[in-house]
């Protein structure tokens, strides 16, 4: 009997519910804060790698960029809204969205953020071996007679003062919102017997999941073309606290940072008639354990600056691994939606 009553209740709700497709267009109302961290590290995978898969690597250098922002975000929405009751008090809507911005500024390098990784440097007895967790400033190649020759790692190129101030952001998302509304026109009609243009004021909240990319130029993940002469930045060499001149990022360099993550939404809705809804609200990124919502890793294969005697190019190649982690902050949004 209980199951029958529940079924009849749900059937009654479904019969009373109103289903409307909607299309919307929105824009950001503030500059979304952009936080970027970065790291550089040289590695070398040689024939002496042991069974645990370890390899030679330098100390990791870390830095971050400050005052980054995303401006002028334009968004489009398409979805289905269900009004559960005849008065229009409760609504549920599901949607897909797409957003873009041509004004992504990653900010400037925070000189105070530059630091080496926390891993210790190998001592002399550990240098040729790969069974300990420590960093090295040189790696070893085998000669024809079986002896090993030390080869110095290249100096870390450091970080550019800026990454980009005109990158392109693109997001695709899907989400669901639940709304509670005050049906002013419905109440007015019940109290006065006079009709008025349909008007409701409400609040909404929900969650979603989206995929985000930040890009610049033609994507190329294998070419070291991100530096140009004449620029100056600052970097701490491994084990050295003094800063030395470095390089700057070429403004024509390729850049591609991507990732996905959850977000929350909350705000105010205004309904005019049954066919127009205006939303004012904020979008809050949801991260777990500090995981950023976009990241990239670029690998640059580089030759040693000066070849040791008897060494050929293939045996002095080193891999520079460069990481970017990007997190966008809270954004205020406005959107106008037409319901059919």
Instruction: Please give the alpha-carbon distance between the first and last residues.
Output: 38 Å
Query: What is the overall pLDDT average?
Result: 78
Count of DSSP H/I helices = 2
Structural class based on helices, strands and sheet pairing:
mainly beta
Describe this structure as you would to a colleague:
The chain has 340 residues and is mostly beta strands. It has one domain (27-339). The protein contains 2 helices and 19 strands. The chain has helices at 2-16, 184-192; strands at residues 18-28, 32-44, 56-57, 61-71, 74-83, 90-105, 108-109, 115-116, 138-142, 148-152, 167-182, 199-216, 234-236, 243-245, 255-272, 276-286, 294-302, 318-328, 331-339. Strands 1-5-6-11-12-15-16-19 form an 8-stranded antiparallel β-barrel. It has a two-stranded antiparallel sheet with strand order 9-10. The longest helix is centred in the first third of the chain and has 15 residues, at 2-16. It is elongated. The two termini are 38 Å apart. Keywords: Signal. It comes from Helicobacter saguini. InterPro entries: OMP_Helicobacter (IPR002718). Residues 1-16 form the signal peptide.
């Amino acid at each position: 009997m209980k199951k029958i009553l529940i079924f009849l209740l749900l059937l009654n709700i479904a019969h009373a519910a109103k289903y409307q497709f909607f299309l919307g267009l929105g824009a950001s109302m503030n500059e979304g804060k952009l936080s970027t961290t970065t790291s550089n590290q040289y590695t070398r995978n040689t024939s002496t790698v042991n069974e645990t898969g370890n390899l030679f690597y330098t100390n990791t250098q870390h830095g971050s960029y400050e005052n980054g922002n995303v401006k002028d975000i334009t968004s489009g929405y398409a979805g289905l809204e269900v009004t559960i009751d005849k008065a229009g008090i409760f609504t549920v809507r599901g949607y897909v969205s797409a957003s873009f911005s041509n004004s992504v500024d990653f900010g400037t390098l925070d000189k105070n953020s530059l630091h080496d990784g926390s891993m210790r440097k190998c001592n002399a007895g550990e240098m040729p071996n790969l069974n300990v967790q420590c960093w090295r400033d040189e790696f070893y190649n085998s000669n024809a007679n079986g002896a090993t020759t030390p080869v110095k790692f290249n100096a870390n190129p450091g970080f550019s003062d800026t990454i980009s101030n005109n990158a392109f952001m693109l997001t695709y998302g899907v989400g669901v919102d639940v709304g509670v509304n005050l049906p002013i026109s419905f109440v007015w009609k019940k109290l006065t017997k006079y009709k008025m243009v349909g008007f409701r004021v409400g609040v909404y909240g929900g969650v979603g999941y989206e995929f985000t990319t930040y890009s610049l130029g033609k994507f190329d993940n294998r070419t070291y073309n991100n530096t140009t002469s004449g620029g100056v930045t600052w970097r701490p060499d491994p084990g050295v606290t003094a800063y030395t001149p470095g390089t700057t990022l070429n403004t024509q360099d390729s850049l591609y940072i991507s990732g996905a993550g959850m977000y929350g939404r909350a705000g105010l809705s205004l309904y005019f008639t049954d066919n127009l809804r205006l939303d004012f609200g904020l979008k809050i990124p949801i991260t777990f354990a500090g995981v950023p919502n976009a990241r990239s890793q670029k690998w640059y294969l580089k030759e040693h600056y000066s070849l040791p005697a008897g060494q050929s190019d293939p045996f002095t190649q080193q891999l520079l691994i460069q990481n970017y982690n990007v997190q966008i902050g809270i954004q205020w949004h406005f959107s106008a939606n037409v319901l059919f």
